[in-house]
Amino acid sequence: MIELMGTMEYGPAPESADQAHAWLDSHGRAFGHFIKGGWKISQRAKSFKTRNPATGQVLATISQGDRGDVDAAVKAARKAQKGWAGLGGHGRARHLYALARQVQKHARLLAVLETLDNGKPIRESRDIDVPLVARHFYHHAGWAQLMESEFPDHVPLGVIGQIVPWNFPMLMLGWKIAPALAAGNTVVLKPAEYTSLTALLFAELCDEAGLPPGVINIVTGDGRTGEMIVNHKDINKIAFTGSTDVGRLIRQQTAGSGKKLTLELGGKSPFIVFPDADLDSAVEGVVDAIWFNQGQVCCAGSRLLVQEGIQKIFITKLKARMEKLRIGDPMDKCIDMGAIIDPAHHKQIDKLVKTGVREGATLWQPDCALPKKGCFYRPSLLENVTPSSTVAQQ
Amino acid sequence: MLDALTVLMEIVEGSPMVSKFKRNPGTRLNMDLVDAIQVNRSAVERRAQTLSGRRSVKKQWQAAWLLKALSCIDLTTLSGDDTPERVRRLCAKAMNPLSPDILAALGLENTKLTTGAVCVYHNMIGPALEALNGAALPVAAVSTGFPAGQTPMDIKCAEIEKSVAAGASEIDIVISRQYALNGDWKALYDETKAFRKACGRAHMKTILATGELKTLRNVARASAVCMMAGADFIKTSTGKEPVNATLPVSLVMVRMIRDYHQRTGHYVGYKPAGGISTAKDALSYLFLIKEELGRRWLEPDLFRFGASSLLGDIERQLSHYITGSYAASYRQAMA
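Structure tokens for the assembled complex are given below, as produced in the milestone run.
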């Protein structure tokens, strides 16, 4: 005890993953697609493994959706849509409220599963992602209730194809599903191949809550499955969040098809510091902007623009703050940064950083402890970067 | 740097009451620095709010952190109805903050675990010293017309001198809020400097009464000015204002301490006071100190809680750590 009082270290504070592992075990760690209110697993179908990026451990086997799966999902959604829209705003609101309560009831399981599958700190999935999902369902339940009075001339589009990314798997699902259902649409959603698990758990929660079969269908798979959804003839709208390149492709492929389209793509957001700012607070702003979710955010402030006169003091403060960041087991409640989503992305980050250095930038990283295993990257600051540098553009 | 490290090592080895760094001698009043201070309220509130969720201590680490918090408490009674007997009782608790069975279970039966100090009004210095009976526990006295500070300057200085003469080794002074509210920083500097002179060898904690300073920028500027005037500690509140210690105010003040330290090399302590009554609150403050100021500040010579009921909750949590269940409040000796 005296020794601990001497070091005043934080010590480990792990959240238990038992509940999530028990849920995975209850499915035999193999998942099909969720179509028409039930699981569709075909023995011959191709599949892939989903891993915990913090450990490399295989969590489960996920099915690679083929044309037959997408067709079945769209057909189920189409069949359910009329009845769903026919429930009226109040009827749909009752279901959406039920889903919101389901998310709250199972918040801990959802958060733990999200962190296992994605590598983001449990603090973020527990305090940000999952509570926001519940709030989105409550919020849109409210809108559904007001549909008739607030949007008297609006009609649902029909069947919506939704493709969500791996950085906020559950939250992006909530963003996309809740408004679509509120307006009277039905949904075929494809989660990212790295992070399908919370979407599959959510499907199960929908079923438990008595959502009519076919209103929500989850088809898993990689970009090929996504392309089948994008090009499907009987889908009225595509909603996509992901990379700019894929967004461009989707725009091209849906052109002239009559499909509505929502795209939420990437960026290279600047963080600008003026000389009269509260610099300590601005440093915290940088921390939130770029190291939240390991920087895997579409609007991450990845370019830091500082007024010349305060550059030196600001960078000194920023480095001191970076020394305090804790990187490690995302299940630990005392961690600031968890794991990068996949070794491929780790490699890509490393390559970009090295390109930056090769082009003349100075790399600074804090001397913090990193886990020996798993997909972790030190927070990095590149100085002497010009607007023409690759790292300032990509 | 070597000096700071030596201090740290000695403190880690268990002589926490010994201050090995040089007392803050103060600097000239640098108005350029004071005028340049900016505080972004919403950003400060966000940092303060999220920080306690970002850090967590469990099991034996939590117990160690709670013990640390305990050793940093200025166990306080500041009431009109204070009597020598109440102060004696307070001092007994300060010298024996945990029951012997808890100490034994934590393996601390052979250590001299005490609170950081006892804090009383001038009239109670005598009874406190008598009760402490030579124990190495400082007596802090509030002074300078505490809590409002609306008494004549010569009387304030005389009050400090009397308290020091009576044996107080720490003096908690209150600033004249009007100087901060009116931006008369020169007057605040001069006043605080005069108090510091009157304190002599006794350490001076400067109470800003942050709940009455209205803006975080006023808090930040008052902190900077008081450190320039030679404060050994800056302290949030008297405990008598409508709003006392809060995490956002603390964040602003400790950032000022950090800036002052980086600029001058001098160490200034921090004391949040008023309203910190749970072990969980106390941990949030310790997280803030460790993250913003660093490990060195987690010692009673640089950090204190001004609190009265906090000790009871810490004892309760420690007894829960040992037994797995919460003790009824009447099972713990009162402070």
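Chain A has two domains: 18-264, 270-393. Chain A touches chain B at residues 1-2, 4-13, 123, 127, 276-282, 284-285, 288, 324, 333-334, 336 (CB under 8 Å). Further analysis is deferred to the final report.
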